[in-house]
Sequence to fold (336 residues):
Amino acid sequence: MARIDELRLMAKVARMYHTHGMRQTEICNRLSIHQSTVSRLLARAEAEGIIRTMVTLPSGTHTEIEDALQARFGLADAIVVDCLNNNDEQIARDLGAAAAFYLENTLKPSDVVGISAWSSALLAMVNAMHPSKKFKNTGVVQILGGVGNPNAEVHAAQVTRRLADLIGAQACLLPAPGVVGSKSARDVLLKDRFVHEAIEQFAAVTLALVGIGTVEPSRGLASSGNVFSPAEVQTLVSKGAVGDICLRFFNQQGQQVTSELNDRVISMEYDQLRRVRRVVGVAGGKRKWAAIRGAVAGGLVKVLITDLATAENLLAVAGNEPSGPAKRIVKGVRSQ
Fold:
């Protein structure tokens, strides 16, 4: 077949398939050629540039930024959300809705879900979820103590129960405060049967849903009473702390900040968190930029759900860091 004849047939088959929506069997019958020939011609037409695939992104989606975050920070997935405004409460609601969709579409019956529920975004996630009873073999484990001021608006135990009820799973509550007054008080609580049983479940967690906190506690966490004193917060800052997950504090590289305050926290340990197969961090807003940056820099979260302004800040700051053996983005392309 002459070159021009083959190109002409390629173009004809491509037009019939892509423009007119004909099935390959219909093209075979119309042109009296074999289906393998049709498949070969379509593949050749793409190689020749006759067929060009174009993906048009819907408004409000940021796939390129998500890809850049994944490549730069080694994330398994990144979800970037357009928020209606920069108000922290609105950001929490928008991120919570995105986290609900993510969880509904990725949760597996074999998963054991851990939730660090002193988070307004995770509360919003639970509020946005649709009921499903498909996960009766799934467990939901509270991984940060939730006992606190009974007048606090958000109660970790309630969030844990609601999530379990929504997905038809069993809830395992951690009936203890997140922060206690002394190491000896923590030691006594750890001997409690129900606290001990909950903590034993931490090793089974395969999917952890966590907020990312700043050193200065959020309003919701502060109202719960599960916080350190201002002087203790300053001690953490002096040691380089920028944020926390489950009240385990880390620096800007995501490394644990060692302090005697760790001995007063009842939650999943830093090293246990690192062993969880899928840690989903749901956080955003300018107030949390340094904390989120530390969490992703240190690989503490494997999936990040955040707002557009935060995502752009993460990439802008990463772009100004000295390049070395770490992965970096150059014009959206991963390089080593």
